[in-house]
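Run Methyl-accepting chemotaxis protein I (Serine chemoreceptor protein) through structure prediction, thanks.
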Amino acid sequence: MNFKSLSVKAKLSWSFGVLIFMLVAISIFSLKALSDANSQFSNYVSGIEVRARLAETVRTSVDRRAIAARDLVLVTKPADLDAEKTEVTKAHEDVQNALRQLSEQVKDPSVSDKARSLVAEISRVESLYGPVALNIVNAALTNRRDEAITMIDDQCRPLLAQLIKATNDYSDYTAGRAKAMEEQSALDYSNKRTLLIATCLIALAMAIGAATLIIRGLTQALGAEPVALGEVTQRVANGDLSLVRGADLAPAGSVLALMGAMQGSLVKLIGDVRTAADSIATGSSEIASGNIDLSSRTEQQASSLQETAASMEELTSTVKQNAESAAQASSLASNASEVAAKGSSVVGQVVETMADISESSTKIADITGIIEGIAFQTNILALNAAVEAAPAGEQGRGFAVVASEVRSLAQRSSSAAKEIKDLISSSVQKIQTGSGLASEAGRTMSEVTNAVARVNDIMGEIAAASGEQSRGIEQVNTAITQMDEVTQQNAALVEQATAASQSLEDQGRKLTQAVSSFRLGTEHSMGYATPVTSAKAPPRTQVKPRPVPEEKVVNGPRAVRASAKPATSGSTSNAEWEAF
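Sure, done. The structure for Methyl-accepting chemotaxis protein I (Serine chemoreceptor protein) is below.
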């Protein structure tokens, strides 16, 4: 990535970003150095110094205890003995307490093994020397001075020398450790100071380099001072398009060089606009003159279309009346077909009723035959009863009289049954004859119904054809009316075009006057061509569109026709010019 190819925003962002990064890095490094120094100091104060102080306490307490034990052997007064005993006890407790704290301190993980071994050596010698010192104190308090002196010479002095040597060794080690830490701290301070100075110098060098690159980049990008660029812009805003001073010497792609190129383009553009404005003014006056003639011819065409529309309206009215008459005939034929269908249905029902009556009469005849047979059998039985009652004499006379009456009734019933059978047979024959006639009438009514249905279909087709003719003529009439409206709209559009051309001529004149206010720095002979004065269009008689007759809906198939949409007047859009 080339730094020169970056935008001003990117250059400033990179430069200040690097400076901020270096500042943050320096701050972090400084804080880290302070933290390390503080940690070392805290370690010294809380660790080494405390342990050194405890070791010194052990040594001074050991000395106090040894001196007090020796004095117990030498003094004789009870008060002195008590005082020295108290001192020995106190010094011994101090030794134990300080040694115990020192042992706890060396358990810290930061303490070296060397320090732990030295403290362990002090504890070991103290574990041997402490009991000896207490034994000397007990011997002195029990008036065994000779034994106490012997213990001091033989046991106490060698152990005391070892204990003092152990404490001195630990103190020397602590002092050496403190000196090493001091030297390391001085070395760290020197290294970090050098690194901090180097970082600051690098940040300063980068800031100077970034400032130099940004200043140079901005100077090359602008090509001149912002004040000079503002003056050039103000001259262009005031219409002064004269040569931009210094643009030819400015770096390629700079603002000043681009403004010089813009000045050249604007000079060429204004010259072209002047020429085009003159051409527009001349052409618009010619268009206005042609539109006047076109408007006159369009009015004549609108009058012819109006006459044609009136003739088509009369033809439409006649065809519509024929269609309505055909529709009425079709309706009457349909009603006749319905009446014939009803009559055929009634005759069918009569035929079915006659068949039921014939069947019932047959059943009655059969029942009458059965009655006649019963009467005959009754007569035979009565005769047999009379013959059987004759030998009985007086006893059978009453039974014979009854049998005779029964026989008489049976004969009369048989005669009546025969008469009924004859009458029913005659009725059945007449019913069969009437059923045949009814069936013949039903067939005749069916033929009449079918004939009326065919007539109805034919009348429906005639009515549908008449309706189609009526709708077709209405559609033609509508199309002519729409053509009339479009022609009138075209006439109005022509008038608008005439007005627009005159307005265009005025605008061209104003445009020429507007561009003439620019100072191009060079004299261009661009005289304004006087346009041809266009004649005013004569007032046009407004032809009112004829109202479209309302279309009646007639049952039947309709002819599908794409109706032409009228053009919208009152606008000078591209769609209107295309329609025109």
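The mean pLDDT is 71.
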